[in-house]
Specification:
Radius of gyration: 18 Å
Main location: cytoplasm
Number of strands: 9
Order of helices and strands: EHHHHEHEEEEHEHEEH
Subcellular location: Cytoplasm
Number of helices: 8
CATH class of the largest domain: Alpha Beta
CATH topology of the largest domain: Rossmann fold
Oligomer: single chain
GO molecular function, one term: NAD+ binding
Largest sheet: 6 strands, parallel
Organism: Thalassovita litoralis
Cofactor: Zn(2+)
Length: 230
């Protein structure tokens, strides 16, 4: 059975109104990454971190999937093989569009995590310092997000999937964040055909045998149509 593994980054959700690290005027531009996206930042000022993720959670809740998300959901439903999405995004837009085979390697905004016992539960709209864990009762609730300096989720599974892939595609990624930046090279070494679909060339564009540039809402549906017509 043919397998397609797709890595998605912030670029696929940008046209749904969710900003990237590099957007001017967005949530990220108002804070230093060290203050809101590291365990050390959370230890220093949990109120600031919760405020930041409460705002991101509210923003994501208002967003709707775009044509690129819907195209990937259609690929999963209609492709005569296996389709896996590995996403760096913490929004739930792939699932909202209908994708079911999704691994959130950086966690998800609508999840909460107990830093004491490791229990996970659905996050409320608002979290705050000392948020109690429903399992152990400790006031150690935090967003279930992989921060800088922490190990991404599902890595053993992801490496196995990459080495089994016939096609690996990276969509809307900068190629600047590891380990995801190494996925293209790893899949290519294992024999996959590698494709980059992006607004502009990423830092790892040389790792890809095929490249397509333009808005995700245009180039992703076109690519999916071609795959389904084969």
């Amino acid at each position: 059975m043919e397998k397609i593994v797709i890595l998605t980054g912030a670029g696929i959700s940008a046209e749904s109104g969710l900003g990237t690290f590099r957007d001017e005027g967005g949530l990220w531009s108002q804070h230093r990454i060290e203050d809101v996206a590291t365990p050390e930042g959370f230890a220093r000022n949990p109120a600031l971190v919760h405020e930041f993720y409460n705002a991101r959670r509210a923003q994501a809740a208002k967003a709707t999937p775009n044509a690129a998300h819907h195209a990937l959901a259609r690929l999963e439903q209609e492709f005569d093989g296996q389709v896996l999405i590995v996403t760096q995004n913490v929004d739930g837009l792939h699932e909202s569009a209908g994708s079911r085979n999704v691994l959130h390697m950086h966690g998800i905004l609508n999840g909460a995590l107990c830093a004491d016992c490791g229990h996970r539960w659905p996050a409320p709209a608002q979290m705050y310092p000392g948020f109690p864990c429903p399992s152990c009762g400790a006031g150690m609730g935090r967003p279930d997000i992989v921060w800088f300096g922490e190990m991404p989720y599902y890595m053993d599974q992801i490496w196995d999937h990459l080495r089994d892939a016939n096609i690996f595609a990276a969509i809307g990624t900068s190629g600047q964040v590891y380990p995801a930046a190494a996925f293209g090279q790893d899949a290519w070494r294992a024999g996959a055909h590698t494709v980059e679909l992006n607004l502009e060339p990423s830092a790892t564009v040389s790792d890809f045998a095929e490249t397509r540039f333009g808005p995700a809402t245009q180039i992703v549906p076109e690519w999916v149509d071609e795959l389904l017509r084969r």
